[in-house]
């Protein structure tokens, strides 16, 4: 057993004096220990020998401590010892007085200060550095901000910015009115270059900690930041920082958000979006979506109408979606939000039933009828009585596909409400020939195979609202926008026009009757959902792909998927599959661990659910450590050596998912948090005597499955995710088919054949020991 002590070796003597279980003894009366004390003739050292029953090994870590212009110290840190006592010993070793003026920081990453709260993050092999205490550092840097020299202020800000992300340092700065001093520099605006950019960055970092509410910002300060957004002549790094700060203000304070909305013209945001700078475009789009989310429905509609008049949709489609540079995750999220807000304008019509007493709505129904039966109606309705004319209109509405002679009864259902009527009118006006052909072709059939236009339109509108999540709150992490919605005006109505013609085509392919209506709609739903999942970039491409997905192709895809998911139920095959499972589960486990070794880029979500910070986590090649650390968007994947944080697998206790995770437990249970629950997981681990958590939000459902499976494998728990089930089923199906390849077209019996009884004698056996003559 190895003995650990911060005092060094007992004696500088050979180990030949080591007795049975006893300590090493000096070999002579003048032997010296490493501290320079003499040992007695009896061999007993005068200094206290470290006890064999010291603090548990789990509380002792071996670390290195650096200081500028000094030889590093290699020490064994007892986590049970107060941090002040540790600092005193470290300072004494370097002959430094006033240990209270110093503090320890992590040497890698963001150089966070070590406190009693986070000291459990120190692991074996950690490298720390001795630096100025955070209160003295804050005092010194804030003093530099008041320097008369511009260079002095710039140097102080350069040192302040990297430290501002540390909570300990931020509290010291804020308690010394650091935010007010930074605010003064920003409001004065004497230097529109690096000093202003550093001040905005430091101010935003300090506010991100949530110590001070964004609502406490003064109106003059916000207006000054708005000036930097509206100004042209300044350093290129200033506008993105100013836009990011205003986004935080808008999301956090409705009152100040209204001020930002009134002070920042939409035209100015359009100017920033047209600059070929991804960071500036992203921040401008972030502020734009924040302003739209904070506006009332009426204001939002006016704002979107104005933006569309200024060709924002065309610019996004050509210069952002089809840009040569890859789109960042944050921009993809903001385009998703913009698409959701666009579709959200349809919600009032979707929630409003038809009013049978509204003259305007009755006239719209008559326009719809006349567009289909204009010639027939005009010729047969002339000179008829009122009752006869009403009877004729009722019959024509039934031909149009309404379930009732009074179409208002069909449109009282919400959803889709008046949105279904809007879709039908749009189709009749913008595709009159296709509309007339649809209605007349089906109304003239007498074999009960007619496809009801109105009933199909109402159900198709409901289906599209469900697929596109019209009226649902915006997800705070989703990025699945459809590019074709930015390539087409009136995209929802145009999508309906494609869908209603697809319904008629599929109806004929299925040779459906009225009793088959629900089955046809299920097929149409599958056709639309499969095509939308391909994310076609234009409506024409969507039309081509969805029309190629015929009813026969849908059946083929269903059968293929069913064959992949279902195997034969013969007992011999089931027995074979059971024997193959352990080997294949081992293969899946190996793949999951390899995926963890590759690492994944995760996104941090702050209290306001902003997603502008990233961190990377991976498993070490020997499967003993989880290594992680922050990184910038767009940067290449870091090496293992550059990741500052480590979590030993041996310290991990359990894996938590969904609502059990501590970082989503308090977020509530609204619809907007459903996607967060589905992607959240946490690892609980031992941190000293307390239980701590490492929290994750997976970028996708697949990554969630891969990581939870891999972590379960590390913890020795079964991998029970849906992805594991699918992978196992696929591997079992493939392996079973390979094993049975030679038995193709050979029927496999339900029961094994019976074993015949043994023969009456064994005279037919050949004795190999008898040599032939």
What does this molecule look like?
This protein is α+β, with helices and mostly antiparallel strands and 773 residues long. It contains 30 helices and eleven strands. The strands form three sheets. A four-stranded mixed sheet has the order 2-1-4-3. α7 crosses α8, α19 packs across α21 and α26 crosses α30. The protein is flat and about 110 Å long. The two termini are 73 Å apart.
* Helical content band: 40-55%
Q: Strand order across the biggest sheet?
A: 2-1-4-3
Overall pLDDT level:
84
Shape: flat
Structural class: alpha+beta
Which oligomeric state applies? Answer: single chain
Integer-rounded radius of gyration: 37 Å
| Straight-line N-to-C gap | 73 Å
Largest sheet: 4 strands, mixed
How many domains is the backbone divided into? 4
Number of H- or I-type helical stretches: 30
Which spans have pLDDT < 50 for at least 5 consecutive residues?
A: 1-56, 376-381
How many individual β-strands?
11
- Strand fraction equals 5-15%
Could you write a compact summary of the structure shown?
The protein has 773 residues and is α+β, with helices and mostly antiparallel strands. The protein is 51% helix and 9% strand. Residues 1-33 are annotated as: Disordered.
């Amino acid at each position: 057993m190895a003995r650990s002590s911060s005092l060094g070796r007992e004696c500088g003597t050979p180990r030949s004096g080591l007795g049975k279980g006893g300590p090493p003894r000096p070999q002579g009366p003048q032997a010296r220990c490493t501290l320079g004390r003499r040992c007695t003739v009896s061999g007993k050292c005068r200094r206290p020998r470290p006890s064999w029953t010291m603090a548990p090994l789990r509380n002792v870590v071996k670390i290195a401590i650096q200081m500028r212009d000094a030889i590093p110290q290699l020490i064994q840190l007892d986590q049970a010892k107060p941090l002040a006592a540790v600092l005193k010993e470290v300072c004494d070793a370097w002959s430094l007085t006033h240990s209270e003026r110093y503090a320890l920081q992590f040497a890698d990453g963001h150089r966070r200060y070590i406190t009693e709260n986070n000291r459990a993050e120190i692991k074996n092999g950690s490298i720390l550095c001795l630096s100025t205490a955070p209160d003295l550092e804050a005092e010194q840097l804030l003093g530099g901000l008041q320097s008369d020299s511009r260079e002095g202020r710039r140097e102080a800000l350069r040192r302040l910015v990297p430290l501002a992300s540390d909570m300990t340092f931020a509290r010291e700065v804020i308690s010394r009115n650091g935010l007010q001093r930074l605010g003064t520099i920003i409001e004065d605006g004497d230097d529109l270059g690096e000093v202003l950019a550093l001040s905005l960055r430091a101010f935003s970092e300090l506010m991100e900690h949530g110590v001070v509410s964004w609502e406490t910002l003064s109106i003059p300060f916000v207006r000054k930041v708005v000036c930097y957004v509206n100004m042209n002549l300044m350093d290129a790094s200033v506008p993105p920082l100013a836009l990011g700060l205003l986004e935080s203000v808008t999301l956090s304070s409705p009152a100040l958000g209204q001020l930002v909305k009134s002070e920042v013209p939409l035209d100015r945001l359009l100017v920033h979006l047209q600059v070929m700078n991804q960071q500036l475009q992203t921040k401008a789009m972030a502020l734009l979506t924040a302003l739209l989310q904070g506006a009332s429905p009426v204001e939002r509609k006016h704002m979107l109408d104005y933006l569309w008049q200024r060709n924002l949709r065309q610019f996004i489609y050509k210069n952002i979606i089809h840009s040569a540079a890859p789109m960042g995750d944050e921009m993809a999220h903001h385009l998703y939000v913009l698409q959701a807000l666009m579709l959200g304008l349809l919600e009032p019509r979707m929630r409003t039933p038809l009013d049978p007493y509204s003259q305007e709505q009755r006239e719209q129904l008559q326009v719809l009828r006349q567009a289909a039966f204009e010639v027939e109606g005009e010729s047969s309705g002339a000179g008829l009585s009122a009752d006869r004319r009403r009877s004729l209109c009722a019959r024509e509405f039934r031909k149009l596909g309404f379930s009732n002679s009074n179409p208002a009864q069909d449109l009282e259902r919400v959803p889709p409400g008046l949105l279904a009527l809007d879709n039908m009118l749009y189709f009749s006006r913008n595709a009159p020939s296709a509309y007339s052909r649809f209605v007349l072709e089906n109304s003239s059939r007498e074999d009960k195979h007619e496809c009801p236009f109105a009933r199909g339109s109402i159900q198709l509108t409901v289906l599209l609202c469900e697929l596109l999540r019209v009226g649902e709150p915006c997800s705070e992490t989703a990025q699945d926008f459809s590019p074709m919605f930015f390539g087409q005006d009136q995209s929802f109505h145009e999508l309906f026009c494609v869908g209603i013609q697809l319904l008629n085509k599929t109806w004929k392919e299925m040779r459906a009757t009225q009793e088959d209506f629900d089955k046809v709609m299920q097929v149409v739903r599958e056709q639309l959902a499969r095509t939308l999942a391909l994310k076609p970039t234009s409506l024409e491409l969507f039309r081509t792909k969805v029309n190629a997905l015929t009813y026969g192709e849908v059946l083929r895809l269903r059968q293929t998927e069913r064959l992949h998911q279902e195997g034969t139920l013969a007992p011999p095959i089931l027995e074979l599959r059971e024997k193959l499972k352990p080997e294949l589960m081992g293969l899946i486990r190996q793949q999951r661990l390899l995926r963890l070794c590759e690492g994944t880029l995760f996104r941090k979500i702050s209290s306001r659910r902003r997603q502008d910070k990233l961190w990377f986590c991976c498993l070490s090649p020997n499967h003993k450590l989880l290594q992680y650390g922050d990184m910038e968007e767009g940067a290449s994947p870091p090496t293992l050596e550059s990741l500052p944080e480590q979590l030993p697998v041996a310290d991990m206790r359990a894996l938590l998912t969904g609502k059990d995770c501590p970082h989503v437990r308090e977020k509530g249970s609204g619809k907007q948090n459903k996607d967060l629950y589905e992607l959240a997981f946490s690892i609980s681990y031992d941190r000293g005597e307390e239980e701590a958590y490492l929290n994750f939000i997976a970028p996708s459902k697949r990554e969630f499955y891969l990581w939870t499976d891999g972590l379960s494998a590390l913890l020795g728990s079964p991998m029970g995710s849906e992805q594991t089930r699918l992978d196992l089923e696929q591997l079992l199906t493939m392996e079973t088919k390979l094993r049975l390849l030679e038995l193709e077209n050979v029927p496999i019996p339900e029961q094994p054949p019976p074993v015949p009884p043994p023969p009456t004698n064994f005279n037919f056996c050949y004795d190999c020991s008898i040599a032939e003559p």
